[in-house]
Amino acid sequence: MENKLKLITIIQARYNSKRFPGKVLKKYKNLTYLEILIKRLKKSKHIKKIIIATTNHSSDDRIKKICDKMKIECYRGSENDVIDRYFQASKFFKSKNIVRVTADCPLIDFSVVDQVITKFFSENVDYSTNTMPPTYPDGLDVEVFNFKSLYLAWKASRKNKDLREHVTTHIRKNSTLKKTNLEYESDYSFLRLTLDDLNDLKVIRNVLDQFNDIYNFNVSEIIKLYKKNKKLFDRNIDIRRNEGSNMSIGQKTWKRANNIIPGGTMLFSKNPDLFLPNKWPAYFNKSKGYRIWDLEGNCLRDLSFMGVGTNILGYAHPAVEKKVIQTIKKGSMTTLNSVEEIELAEKLVELHPWSEMVRFTRSGGEANAVAIRIARAAAGSDKVAVCGYHGWHDWYLSSNIDNKNNLNEHLMKNVPVKGVPKLLKNTVFPFKYNDFAQLQKIVLNHKIGVIKMEVQRDFEPQKNFLQKVRKLATDNNIVLIFDECTSGFRKTLGGLHKFYNINPDIAIFGKALGNGHAINAIIGKKEVMEWCNSSFVSSTFWTERVGPTAALATLEIMEKKKSWEIISKLGKTIKKRWKQISKGNKIDLEIRGLDAIPNFSFNSKNHLVYKTYITQEMLKKGYLASNSIFCSISHTQDLLDRYFDILNDLFFNISRFEKNNELAEKILETPVCLGGIRSK
Question: Which of 58, 108, 417, 634 has its Cβ near the most Cβ atoms within 10 Å?
Fold first, then answer.
């Protein structure tokens, strides 16, 4: 093979993988997987020169050290423009023909590499591979192509940025180039030996553990191993081949998060699978007003959660951010306390004259736990009646110890309670909203010391429900807590209870209070709140001053603009238009929620299918949208008009789907979304 001397192998490698950073530098015993790959490639009969093409980023200095250690050359180029890095490496080393291998294929079979090289020269083609179509296990991929083909791909990528992340996409699709493919004797493309996440890592380790010489075994020996012991390959057998090439940066990052963060995210409500599995952008780079820019630079219009209800004024409101930046420059945390927490406490009491004292936390779950601690101390009783959603702490989830369905009406079905002390069983008793008789029965049958509830969520109070609850609490010396983490500042400047003229003993505020900055408040009557001193309630970061600073600025702007009136009016309009287009398309829709937080559900067994479909199609148009909107003063009429134009078309399609009983697989490009907190 006289041309083989003009053949070089370029391994594409970098540390900062979107899904699994540092994967190629993970070790099997004393060797990195990159070193194992190189040693296996050196067994090839036709490969004489191996180059590593990595990036200029400092994280890839370790890859350069491995090259030095193994005495192979290294080219460093662009981190994000992969094809340019590869092209420039080929050009620098004057490559006429290139063997391409990626560093996530540590079990590459050198004999397969040689066969693909042989076909490239013997058939005189521009491109030779074993992946069109794939029949070898994923992770044994190899490509051989000439410099001319690579140049054409690089040139095309200058005009089309989508081609810059993948070296051979243009080559594979270019019909003018001659191609050939090496096929295995049977199709084993479902086997996964590539290295993209922790499950892959475990499978590769399983395979290597079966061989004394980890550099010499080939594909036939791997297949024999699979037939003999399939359990070795179980961890990643269900992952789609070439999954990464079809994933957005956001989804790759989500996969990366699941490797290192239990549950993938700190907040269940931000799980991408609640919206659009495998497609949801998942992560953001920046935000402003109602716009969010994802990791790929796409500008998305948020007509959904608006930061899970934290941004009534819109993202990064300039007046709030100005105050916060000034505070950060002066220092946000010291040995001494911040005066801003006193100013904020005074402002909240001013807005709620029935209250006299205030404590702060940084999260809603903490605020709920603090309120319960204080209320139990004041009441002299541990037992609590609850209605609504109140966070993740033991006291609340203990409702489900006795019956896994107890919180179905308040949280999500069968919410898990592993780790919650079983001794808390029968200390918390849920009751349904507007079911006063049920609450009366709970109070009668148990020594209830605390009633804790949301003032309103999906439906308005009926038959003087709130007045009856207040009287029941007063008559029985029960501490009444209103959880306004979600409802606060959306109907009035302060708590929703002000609208209904029902005062609790304690109220909790969060979410919108700091317009995206972490601050929650517990306000209450002095005779109740002073019981805080009878227990230990204290935390370091409850004393930082960014949260109070943001809250003071947010309240000032809310008061000036009357934001609660704007978002309530906006929500009423949204509800009205939902009703109009559902009626026009003959869709059975249930519309609920505070005016400022409208939501809907389809009265259909396919509710989650249709919800997923709306999210899928809206995302294509540049909208983050599903079946719930947290209204913001940043939302404009033009934004809503365009949203409803698109939604009307989707409702028309949904009406047709419902009539024809078309199923999820016919309308969805992803799995159906998860049913989350109050998904319907």
Answer: 108
